[in-house]
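Subject: complex prediction, re-run

Hi both,

The earlier run crashed halfway through, so I resubmitted it with identical inputs.
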Amino acid sequence: MNTEELVKNIIKISKKEINIMEFCGTHTHEMFRYGIRQLLPSNIHLHSGPGCPVCVTSEEDIDYIIYLAENYDLGIITFGDLINVPGSNRNLNILRAKGKEVKVIYSPLEALSIARQNSHKKYLLIGIGFETTAPNLAYTLIKAKEENIKNLYFLSLHKLTPPAMKAILDMGEIKLHGIIGPGHVSTIIGRRGWKDIFDKYQVPFVITGFKPEEILYGIYQLIKIIEEEKPALINAYGKSVKEEGNIKAQEIMYKVFKIGPANWRGLGIIENSGLLLREEFEEFDIRKIYSVKVESKKNDLCKCGEVLRGIIKPTECPLYKKVCTPENPKGPCMVSAEGTCSAYYLYGGE
Amino acid sequence: MEEIILLSHGNGGESTRRLIEEEILKYFGNDILNQLLDSAIFDIKGRLAFTTDSFVVSPIFFNGGDIGKLSIYGTINDLSVMGAKPLYLSVGLIVEEGLSFEEFRKILLSMKAASEECGIKIITGDTKVVERGKGDKIFINTSGIGIIETSLDWRGRGIEQGDIVIINGGIGEHGLCIMIQRLGIKVGEEVKSDLAPLNSLVLPLLKISNNIKFMRDPTRGGVAGVLNEIAQKYSVEIEIEEEKIPIKPWVRSASEILGIDPLYSANEGKVIIIASRKDEDKIMSFLKNHPLGKDAEIIGEIKGKGNRVYLKTKLGTRRILDPLKRDLLPRIC
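This time it finished cleanly. Structure:
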């Protein structure tokens, strides 16, 4: 089916008033970019999920990084958008403008050459992302250990997606009739990575790709099983996602990381939803070296938490567009290009 | 011994004199500059255009050009899209100590070639050297003077519903090329900046059509940025069609990998033209027959009064095309 036929078929089979959630920020972004929401009938309500790694970074974690940078003469190495995420009252970008060393990298291996070239200085590499990026960071730490690099520390903000999805289903704040499963994450964890959740909650779940025709195909499959009342866990992104996922990547990831609690903005601490360093890699673990507790203050007006849980739309937040814009974001959902608020803002979501 | 630029080359003494006379004049020399006066003295009669731009691109050498060439073409293009024939340039060089003479000369040579190609003279300039770590190899400022040969003030004149929006070729190439090279990704030779001087394209075009209403080169902020400026300044609604926008395959792949929309990525050899539809054939056939316009396309039209830009997607939906709201990457030009 081409996109036009997919849309026609979705309209034809969709009868029920339903809520579906796209977990992944890239889906949110692409759906706005191609105007896919406009093509769907009004009885299908789309809710964006917490699938944007930058957006779910907690205030406490940002404040901790700022505290370390200011008190321990550590150069910070991290990835693009994280530097704009506000903590209690500041972000890393401001720290950089004031003269602290904050380096933005694109490939984690760059961190190794920075550490090698500046052996007199200590660096903190911040690993962020879901299952998609964790194997790369794990590989970097394996290399750092092999090369005996002593001036590089690591802070893992890595998070796992199924526990967050489970948390949203447990909260039950919105009745979800179906879930558009994240394509990139599933290439790593496989279809089977979602099996426990599906078995427990029986919510229709379709792993979906990112091209417009792939998104529409995923939605079509999802509407079909919802309407037929035949819940299933479907892989509609078979060209990239295997049943068992990417075994090699999983092995590397769990060689370095173990599962533990993680602090999600908007969702709080979720058990077994984060990746912590294993004992064998403790020498890199900044939390073991500087385990300070930093007091954080939340911005009560920012509704990122509610947006991430899919209960409100960005337009319902009092800060949205008035004081919170991509140029001057007050919350992380406006920072990241994958953030729901940013997608609404940039593409004129109503 | 390896020759490098030292702080003493900027101290105003003997080293500076030698740097200017033996290096800079060797490349840029002409009857006006050679006088080495405190100001260049020259005559021009007519309506003039005057512009300035600073160039801090990193890396200084990139696929398809270098900071020197960019500093000449950039100013040529700012004059050209105003309908001004470029005549004279000033060049200010801020060099970080430690730059090798080999690289320095390569840049001067590239500037010389670029200015000769465009038929302009560098008639005044300045060179400063800053301590290591206070610059990044070399920064260049150029200012340019051009003469406006068309008698009418055509800019922005009567942009109205039905007018067409044209671009002379593939978008986003400069910005994405620089970004890829900064990341150190190994790529094929098709990945290069679109850097080019637009004077030979846009000046003759203004002579063959009286119905061109606006021209601008979409550098920082990209095509989306310029279209939004037009929409706001002239209170019009613009709609462009995703499928009509020329995008080279490598740009498409790079933009997907890096998550950068080519509509927001910088161009250095492109011009957006707004013109009346009645001259469509005349303009398009001129563009298509020019090396810098062979991939030209009509990408959209003016829909009427308003202040926004819309993009018609390949699915037939319509969404707002906002101006750039976040930092893409600093120092692309």
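Residues 7-148 of chain B form a domain with the 60s Ribosomal Protein L30; Chain: A; fold (CATH 3.30.1330.10).

- K.
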